[in-house]
Design goal:
two-stranded antiparallel ribbon, 43% helix, Rossmann fold, elongated, Arc Repressor Mutant, subunit A, nine-stranded mixed β-sheet, 16 helices, alpha/beta
Length: 373
């Protein structure tokens, strides 16, 4: 390791570690937990082994090139910035993770901690249906109206639908990437990511230039789950990357919400399983906001069926009303027999029903009427 110099600060150590190791590497996570970032990076650079004599060979392949990176110059060129724990802009919710990111690269004008303070993650299938896209757009629109930021992964399908709907509603959205913030993926969503970076924020724990990879996608899902107080999954099959985000959210004791679909649709099978596992069934933005919003301020209205005039009738009056026919008349005697009430009770009920427009007096008896609405 001759000629290599250990970083002089925790920020520099975190930056270097992010370039020489993968955040999902279980061995690296264990070493960080045991030694801390600064000491571990010092051991990597100076000795190539821990004080206990354990070799740190897995860091060696990337170390030489990582130490030659000018992070400040890269950030200036990209219009990006680096956040580490303790920074004012660092979202404190990330500290709930067992293994928080060592650092985050951010592009976009929004203060990351502030823009995610009132936020909802929206995830789902890359091969979404028209139903999934429409429901996602409706929920995203409604969340924007209620002052929420949407957070997703900029993938095809539900992710892109959430981002696009938020932008169309002039809302704020955050994209968390598996590759570097300068590596748009998928390529077809390049314009979308440019738009997100222009008004909201594009975020990654992968250094600039880093390519997206399967394990990086799974690792970034924990960031999506941690950034927000709740995650909504819209369309996901039983084996879905979106469900790794809901698992992370559940482990973090965040709200997990799922949108139901047809029981015959494999596209919604994962959502239905999430509901069976305890996720809250949601159908619109009001129900989402009710769970993750401010207590007493974001209450969802109670959904009721049609209110009908007969709903408020007293029990005896309703007994008479239910025996009235809509197309032919019934005599008072017949109504007495059918309702089991006495003459005076039936007459009082009929008088009340007539006043409410629910009964009509004919020459040969009484019939049901439509009521005054």
């Amino acid at each position: 390791m001759t000629g290599l110099v250990a970083p002089a600060s925790e920020r520099a150590a975190r930056l270097l570690l992010s370039r020489v190791a993968e955040p999902y590497d279980e061995k690296v996570k264990a070493l960080v937990a045991e030694h801390g970032v600064v000491d571990l990076v010092g051991y990597v650079v100076r000795d190539g082994r821990t004080p206990e004599g354990d070799r740190l060979d897995r860091f060696r392949p990337r170390l030489q090139s990582a130490q030659g990176v000018d992070e400040a110059q890269i950030c200036r060129a990209l219009g990006a910035r680096v956040l580490v724990p303790g920074d004012e802009e660092w979202p404190s919710r990330l500290d709930d993770l067992e293994h928080p990111p060592w650092c985050l690269w951010v592009r976009g004008p929004q203060h990351l901690a502030e823009v995610t303070a009132r936020s909802v993650a929206m995830v789902g299938s890359r091969a979404s249906s028209a139903y999934g896209d429409e429901v996602t757009a409706r929920i995203a629109y409604g969340l924007v109206e209620r002052g929420f930021t949407t957070v997703s992964g900029a993938a095809y399908g539900i992710d892109a639908a959430a981002h696009r709907a938020t932008l169309r509603a002039d809302g704020l959205t955050v994209a968390v990437l598996a590759g570097g913030v300068d590596v748009p993926y998928p390529r077809a969503n390049t314009d979308l990511l440019v738009a997100i970076g222009g008004t909201g924020a594009v975020v990654s724990e992968t250094p600039p230039g880093g390519a997206p990879a399967r394990m990086r996608f799974l690792s970034r899902n924990r960031i999506i789950a941690a950034l927000t107080p709740g995650t909504v999954v819209v369309e996901a099959n039983l084996r879905s990357g979106a469900r790794s985000t809901t698992r992370e959210a559940r482990e973090l004791d965040r709200h997990v919400m799922a949108v139901p679909g047809p029981v015959t649709s494999t596209m919604s099978a994962g959502c239905h399983e999430e509901i069976r596992l305890g996720a809250t069934l949601v159908t619109d933005a009001a129900e989402v906001a009710d769970l993750v919003g401010r207590i007493g301020e974001d209450i969802a209205p109670v959904k009721r069926g049609e209110v009908r005039p007969e709903d408020a009738l007293e029990p005896e009056t309703r007994r008479v009303w239910q025996w009235l026919r809509p197309r032919r008349s019934s005599s008072v005697d017949e109504l007495m027999v059918r309702s089991g009430l006495g003459l005076s009770e039936v007459l009082v009920a009929l008088s009340e029903l007539e006043q409410l427009g629910l009964a009509e007096h004919l020459l040969d008896g009484w019939k049901r009427a439509g009521g005054r609405r």
